[in-house]
Inverse folding.
C-alpha cells in the first residue's frame, strides 16, 4: 500500500526484566510499523506492556537488569542496542515523547518556557532569544492563551490542559517526525481531552508528524487513530486499520473489551458484558494463548501459542479465523 | 410517592485559602434521593461532586444548609449522635488500595465495623455471628471465603474493590455513597464492578449516590443524574432524559466530548472553548457562560436558578436547549 | 515579598522572646534554688548577696526580674559573671563569636562543596565500585570521632611532620583574627575546617545521593531524558536542584547549632576560644549570667538560620513561593 518504507518498523521486540536470577518477559515479540503521518494507537490494559514498548523504542530503559531483543528500525536506523550517546541526538529531535501526567512530567522548579528553550537549545545552535521566540510561537500554535506570559510561569501555576498543551509544544519544538504520546489525555477532563485529541489529530497536517498513541481507552483510539494494535499481557492480540477492528474485531479479547464499555447511546443493557477474572501477571502467563483462561471461545487448540495470522486487513493472534469460525461483526447502536 | 431517603437543602461549603480568598466548593446544592434509586453525580474536576459526597456522609462539615436522612436532620448532629446513623450510610472510595490497611487481614478489615457496632438488638455480636456474616458478605461480592485470611496486597484492583464493597455492606446500610469506585480500574474489570453494584442493589434494595466523571458508567448504573459544574448542579433528572435530551449546554457539551469506541466519519468531537475556570474566582452570572456556545449578555449578569422544565427534569440555564425537549 | 519578610521577622522576634522567657524561668525561677547565691558564687559575703539581690531585682516579682535581666543583656550590656570576678559577659561572647563563626563558616563551605561532589558522583555512578567506594568513605567519615581526628591532625602537623616542607606553614594552635592577617587566619583555620567538615561530608554526601536516586525515578527526570539532554545535564540541572530540599534543611539546623557552640570538641582540640568553649566553661562553673547570655546567643543563630533556610526554599522551589 505504501510505496516508501515505514518510518518506524518494529520486529519481534521483546523486553524482559531480571528478577531473582531469571528474566521475566514483559513484552513478547511485538511487531508493528508506523508510516509517515500515520497515527497508530497501541491499546491495552494495565500490565499489557504498552508503555514498556514505547520506553524501549525511546531507549529510555537502560537498566542493567533489562534485556531488549528484536529490532526497531527508525528511518532505517536500528534502535535496539543503539548506544545512549547516539540515542540522545535522536530523542527530542527526531522522536519526541509526551507523558500521561503533565503535572509531574515538568521539572517543578523551572518555568515552562525555560524547559522548552532548553530542549530547543540542546539540539540546535540557537540564541536564547531565538529559542524563546520559537517557544512562544509554539505555545501560541498549541492554543495557549497569552503565550508570552505563560512561558514565564511555573508548571504548578497552569491548569492540566494548559500543561499538556505546553508538553506537546515542547515535544514539537524540534520538529520531530514522530511523536510518542503515552496516555496523553488520561489525567485530563473530558472537555479538555477532546481539545487535546483534536490537537494531536491535526499534527500530521500542521507538522507532518506521525503519532504513536498509547492508551487504555478504546474511545480515544476510535476518535484519533488510523491503525490500531491491541496488546494483551505483553503480546499482540490484534492489529489493523481502526475501521476494520471497530467494525469486526477478530480477536475475542478485542471484542470483549469493546463490549464491556458501557454505551453512551442506544438501549442500556441490564448487565454489562464483562470479562471474568483479570489479566495474568507476567510470571503466570500461560504458554498458550494468554487470553484463553478468560475467553468464551477457549478450546483445545488454545493451549498452543497462536501465531499472528492475516485475516482480511487485520492481523490476529487467534485460531478462530483459521478454524473457519471468525467472530461476528460488532453490533453498535446507531450514533445519529 | 414515597418520601425521600436523603434530602440535601441548600448545601454550601466554603474553604478558606491563604491570602483571604475563599473557595466555594458547593454553592446552594439541593437534591433528593429516593429509596431504591441510584443518583449519579457527574462533572469534571473541581465541580464539587466529591465534596458533595463527603458532605452527605458528614465526613466534611457544611458551611450552611441541611441534610435530612430518613426524616432526621443530620447536618447538625455531633459525632456521638451521628454514630448510630453511620451504619445506615456507608461509602466506597476510588483508591481500593489506600482504603485498606495493608497490615491487616481481609477478615479483620471487614469484621471491624461488626465488632464496633452492636447488632439490631443492641447486643454485642458473638464471634459466630460475625463469622457467619463474613461468609455471607464474601458470597455477596463473589469472593472465595479463603480470601478472608489474606492481605490486601495479594489481590488485584478489582478484587480489592469487592473487598471495600463487602466492608461497606457489613452493617447492612440503606445508603451507599460511592466516590469514583470504578475509575481506577481497567475497563474489563470496571464492567464487573459496575455489574456488582447493580446486582447488589437489586438483591439488597440499596440506594446509591454514585459519583463518577465517566458519563457512560453513570448512565449504565444510575436511575437519575445530577450534572455539576463549578460547585453547582446545572442539570438534574431521569438518566435517559438528561443524557439523551440534555437541556443545559454544558451537559450537551460533556456528552459530545466523550470519545466513543465507534468510528465516526466526518464528525469530530464538539469542542468547548478553554479550560474549566478556577473555582476560587468563578465567572459572574451563569458560571458556564465563559465557555458556553449559546451565551448571551444576560448569562454573564444573572445566575440562572435550577428550574423544572418537564416532569422531574430541571436545568439551570436561561436558554435551555428547548428543541430537544 | 516584603510583607512576607516582615511577617518572618515578627515571627523570629516572637520565637526569640519565647526562648528568652523559657531560659530565664529554667535558670532563675526554679523553685527551691536561690539564684542570688548562684550568681554571687560560693561563699559570698552577705553584703555581696544583698547587692546581687538588689541589682537583679530578685526581691521583686518575676516579670521585673525578667525585664532587668533582658535590660542587662541587651541594652546596658553590663551583665557580669560573678564566678569570674565581675568579668562582663557580653563582651566575652562578642570576642568568642568571630572565632566560632570563622570555624563554622569555613567548615561549612568545605563540607557543602565536598558532599555535593561526592553525593552527585555516587548517584551518577550508582551501583558501581565508585559509588560503593564513596559511600564507604562517607561512612568512615561519619564514624571517626572529631577529637581523635583533630588530635591526629595536630600530631602530624604540629609535631611529627611540622618541620618538613609539607606542614611547616602551619601556625601554632590558636586563633588569628582575620583583621590581623587574612593569610594567618586561613592557615590557622584550614586544618580545623577540614577536621570539622569530615563528619558532615559523610552525612550530607549520603543524604544527597539517596535523594538524587529517589528523584531519578520521577516523571520529570524521564521527560528530561526524553528531551535528549546529556546525562550530566539531567542529573545536575534537573535532579540536583530538585533534590536539595533535605540538604538545605539539614544544613540550616547543623550550621546553626555549630555557630551556637556545637563545635565544642573542635574548638577544644585546636585551642580556639570560641562560643562552644565559653558555654562549656559557663556550664561547668554554673555561671548563670554567662549561660543565659550564651543560650540567647545560640538561639538567635538557630532562629536566624531557620529563617534563612525558609528563604532558600523560596528560591529553590517556586511552589513554596505561591503557597504563602
Amino acid at each position: 500500500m505504501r510505496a516508501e518504507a515505514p518510518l518506524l518498523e518494529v520486529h519481534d521486540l521483546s523486553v524482559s526484566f531480571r528478577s531473582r536470577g531469571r528474566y521475566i518477559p514483559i513484552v513478547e515479540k511485538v511487531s508493528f510499523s508506523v508510516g509517515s503521518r500515520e497515527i497508530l494507537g497501541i491499546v491495552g490494559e494495565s500490565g499489557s506492556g504498552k508503555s514498556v514498548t514505547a520506553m524501549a523504542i525511546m531507549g529510555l530503559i537502560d537498566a542493567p537488569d533489562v534485556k531488549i531483543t528484536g529490532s526497531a528500525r527508525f528511518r532505517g536506523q536500528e534502535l535496539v542496542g543503539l548506544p545512549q550517546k547516539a540515542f540522545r541526538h535522536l530523542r527530542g529531535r527526531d522522536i519526541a515523547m509526551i507523558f500521561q501526567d503533565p503535572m509531574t512530567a515538568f521539572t517543578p522548579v523551572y518555568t515552562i518556557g525555560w524547559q522548552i528553550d532548553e530542549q530547543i537549545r540542546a539540539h540546535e545552535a540557537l540564541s536564547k532569544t531565538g529559542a524563546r521566540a520559537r517557544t512562544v510561537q509554539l505555545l501560541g500554535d498549541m492554543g495557549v492563551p497569552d503565550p508570552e506570559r505563560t512561558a514565564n510561569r511555573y508548571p504548578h501555576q497552569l491548569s492540566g490542559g494548559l500543561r499538556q498543551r505546553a508538553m506537546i509544544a515542547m515535544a514539537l519544538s524540534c520538529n520531530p517526525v514522530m511523536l510518542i504520546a503515552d496516555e496523553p489525555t488520561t489525567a485530563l477532563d473530558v472537555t479538555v481531552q477532546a481539545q487535546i485529541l483534536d490537537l494531536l489529530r491535526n499534527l500530521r497536517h500542521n507538522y507532518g508528524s506521525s503519532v504513536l498513541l498509547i492508551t487504555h481507552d478504546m474511545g480515544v483510539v476510535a476518535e484519533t487513530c488510523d491503525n490500531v494494535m491491541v496488546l494483551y499481557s505483553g503480546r499482540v492480540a490484534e492489529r489493523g486499520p481502526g475501521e476494520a477492528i471497530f467494525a469486526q474485531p477478530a480477536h475475542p479479547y478485542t471484542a470483549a473489551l469493546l463490549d464491556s464499555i458501557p454505551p453512551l447511546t442506544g438501549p442500556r443493557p441490564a448487565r454489562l458484558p464483562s470479562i471474568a477474572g483479570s489479566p495474568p501477571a507476567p510470571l503466570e502467563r500461560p504458554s498458550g494463548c494468554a487470553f484463553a483462561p478468560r475467553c468464551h471461545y477457549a478450546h483445545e487448540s488454545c493451549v498452543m501459542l497462536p501465531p499472528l495470522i492475516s485475516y482480511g486487513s487485520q492481523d490476529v493472534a487467534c485460531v478462530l479465523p483459521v478454524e473457519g469460525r471468525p467472530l461476528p461483526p460488532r453490533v453498535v447502536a446507531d450514533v445519529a | 410517592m414515597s418520601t425521600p431517603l436523603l434530602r440535601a437543602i441548600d448545601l454550601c461549603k466554603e474553604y478558606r485559602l491563604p491570602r483571604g480568598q475563599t473557595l466555594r466548593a458547593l454553592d446552594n446544592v439541593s437534591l433528593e434521593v429516593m429509596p431504591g434509586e441510584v443518583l449519579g453525580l457527574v462533572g469534571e474536576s473541581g465541580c464539587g461532586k466529591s465534596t458533595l459526597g463527603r458532605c452527605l456522609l458528614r465526613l466534611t462539615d457544611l458551611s450552611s444548609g441541611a441534610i435530612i436522612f430518613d426524616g432526621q436532620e443530620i447536618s447538625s448532629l455531633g459525632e456521638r449522635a451521628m454514630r448510630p446513623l453511620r451504619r445506615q450510610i456507608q461509602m466506597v472510595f476510588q483508591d481500593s488500595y489506600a482504603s485498606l490497611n495493608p497490615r491487616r487481614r481481609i477478615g479483620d478489615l471487614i469484621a471491624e465495623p461488626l465488632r464496633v457496632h452492636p447488632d439490631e438488638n443492641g447486643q454485642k455480636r458473638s464471634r459466630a455471628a460475625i463469622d457467619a456474616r463474613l461468609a455471607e458478605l464474601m458470597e455477596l461480592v463473589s469472593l472465595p471465603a479463603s480470601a478472608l485470611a489474606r492481605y490486601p496486597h495479594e489481590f488485584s484492583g478489582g478484587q480489592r474493590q469487592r473487598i471495600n464493597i463487602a466492608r461497606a455492606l457489613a452493617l447492612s446500610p440503606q445508603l451507599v455513597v460511592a466516590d469514583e469506585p470504578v475509575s481506577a480500574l481497567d475497563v474489563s474489570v470496571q464492567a464487573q464492578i459496575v455489574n456488582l453494584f447493580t446486582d447488589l442493589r437489586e438483591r439488597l434494595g440499596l440506594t446509591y449516590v454514585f459519583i463518577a466523571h465517566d458519563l457512560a458508567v453513570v448512565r449504565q448504573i444510575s436511575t437519575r443524574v445530577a450534572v455539576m459544574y463549578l460547585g453547582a448542579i446545572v442539570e438534574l433528572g431521569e438518566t435517559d432524559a438528561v443524557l439523551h435530551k440534555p437541556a443545559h449546554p454544558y451537559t450537551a457539551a460533556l456528552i459530545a466530548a466523550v470519545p466513543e469506541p465507534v468510528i465516526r466519519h466526518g464528525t469530530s468531537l464538539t469542542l468547548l472553548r478553554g479550560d474549566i475556570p478556577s473555582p476560587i474566582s468563578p465567572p459572574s452570572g451563569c458560571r458556564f457562560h465563559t465557555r458556553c456556545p449559546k451565551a448571551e449578555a444576560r448569562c454573564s449578569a444573572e445566575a440562572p436558578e435550577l428550574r423544572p422544565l418537564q416532569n422531574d427534569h430541571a436545568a439551570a440555564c436561561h436558554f435551555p436547549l428547548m428543541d430537544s425537549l | 515579598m516584603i510583607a512576607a519578610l516582615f511577617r518572618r521577622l515578627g515571627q523570629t522576634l516572637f520565637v526569640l522572646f519565647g526562648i528568652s522567657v523559657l531560659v530565664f524561668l529554667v535558670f532563675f525561677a526554679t523553685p527551691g534554688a536561690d539564684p542570688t547565691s548562684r550568681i554571687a558564687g560560693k561563699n559570698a559575703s552577705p553584703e555581696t548577696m544583698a547587692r546581687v539581690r538588689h541589682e537583679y531585682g530578685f526581691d521583686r516579682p518575676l516579670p521585673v526580674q525578667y525585664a532587668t535581666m533582658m535590660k542587662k543583656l541587651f541594652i546596658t550590656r553590663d551583665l557580669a559573671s560573678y564566678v569570674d570576678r565581675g568579668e562582663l559577659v557580653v563582651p566575652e561572647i562578642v570576642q568568642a563569636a568571630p572565632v566560632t563563626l570563622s570555624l563554622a563558616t569555613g567548615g561549612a563551605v568545605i563540607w557543602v562543596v565536598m558532599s555535593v561532589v561526592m553525593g552527585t558522583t555516587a548517584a551518577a555512578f550508582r551501583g558501581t565500585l565508585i559509588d560503593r567506594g564513596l559511600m564507604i568513605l562517607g561512612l568512615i567519615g561519619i564514624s571517626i570521632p572529631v577529637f581523635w581526628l583533630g588530635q591526629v591532625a595536630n600530631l602530624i602537623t604540629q609535631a611529627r611532620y611540622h618541620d618538613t616542607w609539607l606542614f611547616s606553614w602551619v601556625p601554632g594552635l590558636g586563633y588569628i583574627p582575620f583583621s590581623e592577617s587574612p593569610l594567618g587566619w586561613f592557615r590557622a583555620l584550614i586544618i580545623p575546617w577540614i577536621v570539622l567538615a569530615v563528619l558532615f561530608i559523610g552525612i550530607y554526601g549520603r543524604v544527597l545521593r539517596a535523594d538524587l536516586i529517589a528523584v531519578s525515578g520521577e516523571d520529570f527526570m524521564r521527560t528530561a531524558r526524553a528531551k535528549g539532554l546529556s546525562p550530566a545535564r539531567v542529573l545536575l540541572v534537573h535532579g540536583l536542584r530538585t533534590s536539595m530540599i533535605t540538604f538545605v534543611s539539614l544544613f540550616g539546623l547543623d550550621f546553626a547549632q555549630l555557630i551556637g557552640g556545637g563545635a565544642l570538641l573542635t574548638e577544644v582540640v585546636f585551642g580556639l576560644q570560641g562560643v562552644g568553649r565559653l558555654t562549656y566553661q559557663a556550664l561547668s562553673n554554673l555561671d548563670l549570667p554567662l549561660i543565659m547570655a550564651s543560650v540567647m546567643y545560640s538561639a538567635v543563630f538557630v532562629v536566624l538560620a531557620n529563617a534563612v533556610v525558609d528563604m532558600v526554599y523560596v528560591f529553590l522551589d517556586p511552589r513554596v513561593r505561591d503557597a504563602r
